[in-house]
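re: ur question from earlier - yeah i can do the single chain one, its not a big deal. heres the input i used so u can compare w yours
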Amino acid sequence: QVQLVESGGGLVQAGGSLRLSCAASGSIFSINTMGWYRQAPGSQRELVAVITRGGLTNYADSVKGRFTISRDIGKNTVYLEMNSLKPEDTADYYCRATTARDGYWGRGTQVTVSS
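and the output i got, formated as tokens:
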């Protein structure tokens, strides 16, 4: 089992920045990838960024050049640095961890970008 707790969401003006954190606990040795997803009202949950055990990263086209996913292995934490935020980035952001057998979700943190 893996437990994930997100933090760092909030209200920000367009053009501003936020940093989300996702702290993992439990069977962290089994985690292969960790990532951030988001879900806007009335929309499906979508991938934002992912980082593998080996440090490889991948981003949705809509956030490339603005968002950066990183990790602190010692703190078992993954971050999502979000810059140049746009109103369309408004969503609930969820952390996800995948192992060879399972996937785990955090409860999410809300990000609201005002125009």
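The CA atoms of residues 38 and 93 lie 4 Å apart. not sure if urs matches, ping me
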